[in-house]
Design brief:
The structure holds two protein chains of two kinds. Chain A is α/β, with parallel strands linked by helices. Helices cover about 25% and strands about 20% of the residues of chain A. The two termini of chain A are about 25 Å apart. In chain B, strand 1 and strand 2 form a beta hairpin. The longest helix of chain B is centred in the middle third of the chain and has 30 residues. The chains are: A alpha/beta, B mainly alpha.
Chain lengths: ~475, ~375
């Protein structure tokens, strides 16, 4: 057999080049391989950290008229669309949104056929059992299944391979430069699918957008979403949607690791206690609404406080009212002692809590409804679930802003073609996943919708890229 | 000397479990996760219970977003394997022999050699050289090598000791994990526990299988284990039938090839040979991440004993009408004696620890 003697740094060739290694990239690679293409996938992360933010996901929002797999009842296109309009306040492309919603139905079967397994909705997520299909084992299990399927279907996967440059002429793909384990390779392909995520792991870029406070942000997902491809698209004058300071940020445990803290760093106790800044001042109504409806605003709230830090204080009455936290709370028998442990001013915290306790009326507490058990007469009143913080031991957690994803990306067509300012939709360059999700999810958050966009647009991008090659 | 908590095996398992409890993505994999989610704090005995509920399918390792190189370094299957190993050591009867689980492979090899030598000695003492190396056929052929009384006596003593030791050990474990008498009489729970055990539900009996080599799923572990387990049960049935033949009907072994004990034993033996060889092969290929090599000694020791018992049994069956029978019988009985001598101190007891954990799970569900 005639075997080529490769040289270090050789150019690489394939029909379709997929940049990225998460859900959308895998869906694109698999669907392009299904269409008979020779596919090369370059994943920035090493194998042990593959899968981007998809490894931290847990479900997929799926339209269905009638029971579907593990999903009961129905979730119509209209209801799905209304949910989306509500969270985005209309900041969406309705055609792309409806296309995503409609295709999410068939995507369920496509996912199953490619190895994804579902499980009934997790304990404590009953509200999602009709709308969201949970992955058995979570997003990393999904990613593993897709990698195994992709390999079986002949997709060539290179890990530790960071795409750093795109050569684009008149809106069409020429070649890319990829650093494979640090060695520079040119990659030539007939079609390009970019599914390389957002830029939330690029701390310098976050700092440009947010100022020095960005240094205190924690990144809930992968460290590999550096946004280099967004910068390349900007350089080549692709149509950009969204602003760099837009990101989905939630309040998470301040002790979480810088990257990849994922789901377990969330803290669900804010609505059962009070939150103060570093000067022991309350600054927002902790009981405005149920936590799942409010946690997303708290990331931004904490980001606006001095040193981007908050402290949530509860007492022993509340400790079993929320999901167990991964880091144990700081615990003390008096408010002053807790303040000392949290490095807060003891008398200031005592004062805040005393004032708070005194402002609570006598409406009964009920954590399962908006109980109206609130305070009156404070600068910042708490409107629900206000209980006196008076039963030791007292518990405290620090809160930090945790960035989940960014919204800025490239504008695409319903065929996942990237749109360039001068030349319009590209015939050779496609985008899927977080890098284009902002077309549809212009702001806000809808559980499992990112995975729906990634899956639908991933499959579409792979199919469209394959079109016309053979 | 005070130990360091972060170096403690149980504490590391607790840390893993607490992270699971705030994640819950693996809820649908097996019984361990629902059992975790019904609690907020985990004492040592609860963790021992969870460790025996775990069937080491390793699904949660491959699905975990927090495995190394993540700073959390999650490894639930391995953490629970370590605790499970300790639970054998802690609850085995007699307690003084608990440490045999630490160097189980070595200990079992030594006991095997000893048991083997004793049987050999019996053969040499009781069989004359003429009958040992000549063709022996017809009823009582085996007993001309080793007399019936000696064979039955030694087997009986070992067997009674096994029942006593395993029974007391399992009782220790059952009490520690909070098992109740009422749990034993709950027929629905008992049926569910036995169903899970007999189908190996937690190695993916719904057809999906489990992970071994990597993140792909396969049914081979479950199938090999079935061959071994049902093979063992067939062999046990063969021995029981033969005992009834002997003591009730007075029919003396060896029995015809078409007799029930021989048919059951042959089918069982073939199952054990394929099953144990297959499991050994799968264990060799297990992913390095979740597996814990220190238990391989225990696993291989028991698999090897079962394998050799079956192989020597089948060879004995095949050659029982030749002059090799005498030596083969001694070899076979030597391995059988070794297997039963080590039974309460071997991997065998996982059957009862797991069943106990499953029974508790189904009662508390």
């Amino acid at each position: 057999m005639d075997r080529k003697d490769y040289k270090t740094g050789d150019a690489l060739f394939s029909d379709v080049l997929v940049i990225g290694g998460g859900n959308a990239a895998l869906c694109a690679a698999i669907s392009a391989a299904d269409a008979g293409c020779n596919v090369l996938m370059v994943e920035h992360a090493p194998k042990s950290l593959r899968g981007g933010n998809s490894q931290h996901t847990r479900n997929f929002r799926c339209m269905h008229e009638g029971p579907k797999g593990i999903l009961a009842g129905d979730y119509t296109e209209e209801e799905y669309f209304e949910d989306l309009m509500r969270v985005t306040a209309g900041k969406t492309d309705p055609e792309l949104a409806r296309m995503t919603i409609r295709r999410s139905y068939d995507a369920y079967d496509w996912m199953t056929a490619n190895g994804v397994r579902f499980q009934p909705s997790l304990g404590g997520t009953l509200s999602l059992s009709r709308t969201n299909a949970f992955f058995l084992g979570g997003g990393k299990a999904l990613v593993n299944a897709y990698y195994n399927t992709a390999e079986r279907k002949g997709v060539r996967i290179v890990y530790d391979a960071q795409a750093i440059e795109l050569d684009i002429e008149a809106g069409e793909f020429k070649s890319a430069v990829v650093l494979c384990k640090g060695i520079r390779h040119e990659v030539h392909a007939k079609r390009l699918v970019v599914a390389s995520g957002g830029f939330e792991s690029n701390l310098e870029w976050l700092e440009e957008a947010w100022g020095p406070s960005a240094r205190n942000f924690l990144i809930r997902g992968t460290q590999f979403n550096q946004g280099l491809m967004i910068k390349e698209f900007m350089r080549h004058r692709a149509s950009i949607i969204g602003e760099p300071d837009q990101c989905h940020a939630v309040a998470i445990d301040g002790r979480a690791p810088k990257y990849d803290g994922g789901i377990v760093t969330r803290l669900d106790c804010v609505s059962f206690g009070i939150v103060v800044d570093k000067y022991c001042r309350r600054f927002y109504d902790e009981g405005e609404d149920f936590w799942p409806k409010r946690y997303a605003i708290w990331g931004r709230l904490i980001a606006q406080q001095p040193d981007q830090v908050g402290y949530v204080i509860i007492d022993s009455k509340a400790i079993n009212d929320f999901m167990p936290s991964v880091f144990p709370p700081l615990e003390a028998d008096s408010v002053e002692e807790l303040a000392t442990k949290l490095k807060l001013d003891p008398s200031a915290l005592k004062q805040t809590i005393t004032t708070f306790n005194a402002a609570i009326g006598d409406t009964p507490f009920d954590k399962d409804v908006l109980d109206g058990c609130g305070t009156t007469g404070l600068d910042v009143d708490k409107t629900n679930w206000a209980r006196r913080i008076d039963t030791p031991p007292y518990y405290g957690y620090t809160l930090a802003p945790g960035i989940t994803f960014t919204y800025m990306g490239v504008k695409v067509t319903d065929k996942a073609q990237v749109i360039f300012e001068e030349t319009g939709p590209s015939n050779t360059i496609f985008a899927a996943g977080e890098i284009m999700a902002g077309n549809i999810l212009g702001q806000g958050y809808l559980a499992g919708f990112g995975m729906a966009i990634g899956t639908v647009f991933g499959i579409t991008a792979g199919q469209e890229a394959a079109n016309g090659i053979h | 000397m005070e130990s360091i908590s972060i170096l403690d095996v149980t504490q590391d398992a607790r840390r893993n479990i607490e992270i699971c409890n705030s994640c819950r993505y693996c809820e649908g994999f097996c019984a361990v996760f629902p059992a975790i989610e019904s609690r907020r704090s985990f004492d040592r005995e609860t963790i021992q219970y969870l460790s025996n509920l775990c069937h080491n399918c390793t699904g949660c390792y491959h699905a975990c977003q927090y495995t190394t190189p993540h700073v959390f370094d999650m490894n639930v299957p391995q953490a629970l394997t370590k605790v499970r190993q300790e639970s054998y050591e802690e609850y085995v009867w007699p307690k003084a022999l608990g440490k045999v689980f630490r160097k189980n492979g070595t200990v079992i090899s030594m006991i095997t050699a000893l048991a083997f030598s004793l049987v050999m000695l019996c053969g040499l003492l009781y069989a004359d050289a003429g009958s040992l190396f000549s063709v022996q056929q017809g009823p009582g052929a085996f007993y001309r090598i080793i007399p019936h009384g000696i064979m039955a006596g030694i087997a009986g003593i070992i067997f009674l000791f096994d029942i006593l030791a395993i029974g007391l050990g399992v009782r220790n474990f059952w009490r520690a994990i909070g098992g109740r008498v009422s749990y034993l009489t709950n027929r629905d729970a008992m049926r569910s526990a036995l169903h899970d055990a007999m189908t190996l539900k937690h190695l993916g009996s719904d057809g999906s299988g489990c992970n071994d080599e990597d993140s792909t799923f396969s049914n081979r572990r479950r199938r090999y284990h079935h061959l071994m387990m049902y093979g063992f049960l067939l062999c046990f049935a063969a021995t029981s039938v033969a005992t009834i033949y002997d003591y009730v009907f007075g029919w003396v072994a060896p029995y015809a090839l078409t007799s029930l004990p021989v048919i059951l034993g042959t089918a069982g033996g073939v199952g054990i040979i394929i099953g144990t060889a297959g499991l050994s092969w799968v264990k060799l290929r297990m992913h390095d991440g979740p597996s814990w090599k220190a238990v391989l000694g225990m696993d291989y020791a028991f698999l090897s004993l079962l394998f050799w018992v079956s192989l020597t049994g089948l060879v004995l069956l095949g050659l029982r009408d030749t002059s090799a029978m005498g030596v083969l019988l001694i070899v076979h009985l030597g391995v059988v004696a070794a297997l039963f001598a080590v039974l309460p101190f071997s991997k065998f007891i996982h059957i009862f620890f797991r069943l106990g954990a499953l029974l508790k799970y189904h009662n508390e569900k």
